[in-house]
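Please check the following.

. . .
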Amino acid sequence: MLMLLSCGNNNTSSSDTKSDSATTTATTSNKKSILFFGDSLTAGYGLSDPTDDAYPAVIQHKLDSLKLPYNVINAGNSGETTAGGLGRIDWVLKQKTDIFILELGANDGLRGIPVEETRRNLQAIIDKVKAKYPNAKIILTGMQVPPSMGADYANSFKAIFPQLAAKNKINLVPFLLTNVGGIPKLNQGDGIHPTAEGAKIVANNVWVVLKGDL
């Protein structure tokens, strides 16, 4: 099974590539914030209504149904690399953050960016979150690249995420697209981005880890 993990490209319109304007912000002082920081998988690229169907929105629905006092902030940006995320993180962290979910790296992998560069960028993002919000809980989502990238590269890339989680003592979603990646009916026509139904499964993959931090 081919795990296709492209997270958009930089040739989309601004409405596709920026989901910051489609965020749900924390407006009630007694609610905590869960900030999702990622690429098109987080932004909900290709979905008819990302504000309702992207996996962070599905998690917001879950939180609301359980009457839990959390607001989701979707800071996904299609086409984002870890370098792009590092350049954007300071601005994003102006929003108070109680739980930070980091979903980046797949675009690095598909571009063949050196594994150590990806690792450094992710670590730098984690460091900035810890410095700004020392009490925030951080969750890292694991990523994989297709075997076509070469076995050595694919294995080294996959290892980044559990290694960083262990080093920083943060929680890990082992693979964000478990039970979705490579399954045609759960992905859009590009064979890459989840459908609304696929996004529900992705949300559950995250929820299994997230619920322990609430």
About this structure: The mean pLDDT is 89. The first strand starts at residue 32 and ends at 38.
